Amino acid sequence: MKVSIVGITGYSGLELLKILNNHKKVQVVSIHATKEVGQCISDIYPHLTDQCDLVIEAFDAAEIMSKSDLVFFATPSGIASHLSEPFVEAGFPVIDLSGDHRLSATSYSEWYAKEPAKQAILDQFVYGLAEFTDVKGKKFIANPGCYATATELALLPLVQAEVLEKDSSIIVDAKSGLTGAGKGLSDSSHFVNVHDNYVTYKLNKHQHIPEIEQALHLFDADLLPIQFSTSLLPINRGIVSTSYLKVKEGVSQEAVQMIFEKAYADKVFVRLSKGLPDLHQVLGTNYTDIGFQVNEKTGILTVISVIDNLIKGAAGQAVQNLNLMMGWDEAEGLPVQATYL
Amino acid sequence: MKVSIVGITGYSGLELLKILNNHKKVQVVSIHATKEVGQCISDIYPHLTDQCDLVIEAFDAAEIMSKSDLVFFATPSGIASHLSEPFVEAGFPVIDLSGDHRLSATSYSEWYAKEPAKQAILDQFVYGLAEFTDVKGKKFIANPGCYATATELALLPLVQAEVLEKDSSIIVDAKSGLTGAGKGLSDSSHFVNVHDNYVTYKLNKHQHIPEIEQALHLFDADLLPIQFSTSLLPINRGIVSTSYLKVKEGVSQEAVQMIFEKAYADKVFVRLSKGLPDLHQVLGTNYTDIGFQVNEKTGILTVISVIDNLIKGAAGQAVQNLNLMMGWDEAEGLPVQATYL
Amino acid sequence: MKVSIVGITGYSGLELLKILNNHKKVQVVSIHATKEVGQCISDIYPHLTDQCDLVIEAFDAAEIMSKSDLVFFATPSGIASHLSEPFVEAGFPVIDLSGDHRLSATSYSEWYAKEPAKQAILDQFVYGLAEFTDVKGKKFIANPGCYATATELALLPLVQAEVLEKDSSIIVDAKSGLTGAGKGLSDSSHFVNVHDNYVTYKLNKHQHIPEIEQALHLFDADLLPIQFSTSLLPINRGIVSTSYLKVKEGVSQEAVQMIFEKAYADKVFVRLSKGLPDLHQVLGTNYTDIGFQVNEKTGILTVISVIDNLIKGAAGQAVQNLNLMMGWDEAEGLPVQATYL
Amino acid sequence: MKVSIVGITGYSGLELLKILNNHKKVQVVSIHATKEVGQCISDIYPHLTDQCDLVIEAFDAAEIMSKSDLVFFATPSGIASHLSEPFVEAGFPVIDLSGDHRLSATSYSEWYAKEPAKQAILDQFVYGLAEFTDVKGKKFIANPGCYATATELALLPLVQAEVLEKDSSIIVDAKSGLTGAGKGLSDSSHFVNVHDNYVTYKLNKHQHIPEIEQALHLFDADLLPIQFSTSLLPINRGIVSTSYLKVKEGVSQEAVQMIFEKAYADKVFVRLSKGLPDLHQVLGTNYTDIGFQVNEKTGILTVISVIDNLIKGAAGQAVQNLNLMMGWDEAEGLPVQATYL
Questions:
Q1: Which residues from chain B sit within 8 angstroms of residue C11, using beta carbons?
Q2: Same domain membership, residue B98 and residue B228
Q3: Same domain flag for A109 and A27
Q4: Residue D272 sits in which domain range?
Q5: D285: closest chain B residue by CA
Q6: Fewest CB atoms within 10 Å of the CB: C41, D25, D221, D236?
């Protein structure tokens, strides 16, 4: 299968290229960006020397459709919303890693403050949370956001199992490494400001909030709005999503264990931790590791889920979706050996 | 005034020495430890060259009482509980930075799993949360814990103002740099395991939980147990305490602002942030900076308080307590210029 | 091919397991350590969940020889020197990642201050710097040290080409991440002491000095002793070896470029950087990247070589040696996609 | 004494403000910048809340001269070269922390690639390496650069003592934290690129090279050009300057010890380390700590000097120069207690 990547020079694009380089059934035939067009990618990114010698091309939908079988968008928000149109109209498969096809037009306008894709385009896309959506045979995938992936995988089994009290909001305290904030230059990504610091940002305003609520509402339309914090850890990779959930009386540690075990019994990329998971055990892989603890004094269940934001939270899940779309082995090409050290 | 420090080689002891070296009214006359007795401290800690040439001595209560006017304990838990006895019995002033005189004997036994001080000794100690306790003229101070300080200063004004819903537990997601975990060698403090990681530990089991509950109960005996997470940030210094609080209907951002402003109007070491505070603005100082946000969708108030765990969370507050005990300028000797960069 | 790993719980052992899990021609059949015997490795190391469920076994040479075809030693120094004996005597293949079979008995005693292996055993081993030694068909490989690998690959082509002035010592200023210092607990590996610091240690006393000199002397017996600094970077992985070399008059940037190009023309794991290499371009891979600059004012050539100390500097090169011993594809199983971010 | 700071929002400007806030004889009466004019500085920098409520003003030389007694320039290179002119012409004291008045016009043009100050202006300035220049009563001080300070203090005593071989270049491998690279946004200061990395930049092209050579040549006009590397450590503060020096035959460890002891016997801000110094022992202070080792096998002396680049390497030395100019206590206002942890 031949694929093209649009937005190659962003963090997700580079990670996607790396994963696809290890994929037996896929060949990356073109890479696209707005800057550095005409340059060999390994001249700009020396880590790709001997690994990829493609030349960066300007975006050209017709050209991509002529030589590829599928296009990945790994672009900043506000771009794929428009660029995806000719592909969708032509029935040409798209996997969008950006947030542009995850929400309704109204919700997108509100949370992204950008012009949404046309509703007719949005209607074609399936939200591809790989463990919960059946994407086999689908053509247009909206790949979930990083915070959203970690949080939804922690919450969905519990919402489905109806063990949460209805009168309390779900509270999520999520943390991310700096690659999650993107490659753009700003005071908030300057090394000096991030290092030895911990900065909470976009409190209750992060654009993954409506995405998570939308996913949860599929299983329980009555859920209260969620309380959602996002903070930057002074590290490059990784998301830790800590959820505090008021459980119904009598819901025990063992009951929660059974819920998660059942939910993920046949899911290769979700693992239940014996204790609480940390980032080292998933960085470099497509895994989501989940641990939890019921506090009998407070009736609150704490769930901690950890992922590599660039892999399971972006490029890895995109490839997982590709594998599932095509009916291939779900794990093909995906990294499973953690960096660990 | 002449003072002695017991437990000089721990992180709190060293920080205390540093602060007292800048204090106009205090002279450190002896320093004590169990290891490295007989060595000049600047031979072991080169940063003290030309700043302190005291020789480390073994602990000797009688000797300390003969040459000092006050003793600081900066020892690990389980030590000051016993060593404080002769001082208390002799009416010789003690400031204990450890957790050994903060809780009742019963609670201490349960949470520290160590033998508590005698109840008669514990009865003599005042819990010195400097902004809330009047320690003037007191002789025996139990200096608050680091997580406890950050959390209590965020919560007490709100509990006092009775704006929290009674039927919901307070949820605290607290994070600390590694100096908070102490100097001991363990896998969990090995650089390789901490760096690029985020580890949640002692979930609902941290010994500062009963300390916080005890402080809150002074103002509202009916509060539910708190939900409390503690995690390690890959940094050396700093605590971020993030609290999620269900507020009564109609409690607005402005109302909370007024509560905090009133509570801390005349407190030199608590500052209200215009936005959400980060660690850089307090590291190296005795300040507690507090920011907050009411979410009108969820009715949840998020409060973030930040401190330097070794200063306001340990040695700085101990000196602040000393200043208040003695009726001196509360800020004497205490650092107020943040490291910032 | 079936292999066993002795010293599985050290950093090199875990990395080796990870690489071999991706190797098509090798199966790890047993893993050995002195601690945690009898436990499933993924119970201790959660990142290995679903990746390896071997149980840690005590060391037993006969047992290993009965079920394996080759044994890797990833043990601290001073262990393989003795444990290797029955294997060598039985003609059973050994790859030793430790320093125990790299030096003569005399030199080992001097630099490691431990009892050396018997000379008869040492005589069987080949020092396996993969780019310079022909190990095909060999049975006993002493895998090079991390600093040594980075430094020798930077220096050997220049020594061979005879472009260095004979009357000046080679000066090497090498830096390593903390995994290079091993898993042992010590003040020097405590997070608080390493973070935000830069510590030079074992100046002119590092045990890789005789290893490097021995390798260089194979090509020029007259070289002066080298000057060698080792420092700890506050990171987990990576070695940067910066060499300062007085070149003969007239040796130009272009001449050096040609020397390196020629030396590494057919070597898949050495890349010449266009500029000076940094760590990000090699971490997570088995590559050595080399950059350099001739300073015409001083006549000094600066060469910077970078590696991932756990891969090319340990487990990766060990597998590279295995591949070469067996006549397989040199790159089989070895990671080539850098973590990069 | 009343002073003004031009360039307040840069790292050096902010550090200077912090130090002067602790100085008994100095009051900062105005602060100047090109951006954020009209805003209260503590509104932009929350760490200054309650510490400084000055409003940022546009630069106006006449205004500064009317209300201040001295002006500090903490501006990027290429600015003070021109702004200093009216002050010098009016005989109004200037301390310039930038590189604009350190070099001859010719050398400045070559290394900074910017238009130099007029030669008549440059002639008025004294290069203020506080331990070597007598600045008492001087009016115009060019404050040394950060790398230059650390390196010159390591080298000057040895050059003066004539123990270095004349036929070998001095080789310096210097490393700096990111504050040394300034506040500007660029890919090279983006957190993701710096973290877990080690990047060598401006090899043999750093603008502190001519500054160091100029200082050394005052004591030995025949010295060969120096070989100088500069690299970025993934930390915020600190410079480590490692020098490799070929010493004359017979120069021993003890001889070097005596040279340094004699050179710095009465210098309060230079300390000789018993072993090799690390950054933790000087960060947060105005100290330079120096350690060294003679290698008898190679005849090479390694000297390591460490400073806090923002203090001794910039703002601290500027205040030290002020103190010396005015005949005050050299240490007034300057921090001497290391952050350490």
A1: 192
A2: no
A3: yes
A4: 147-309
A5: B47
A6: D221
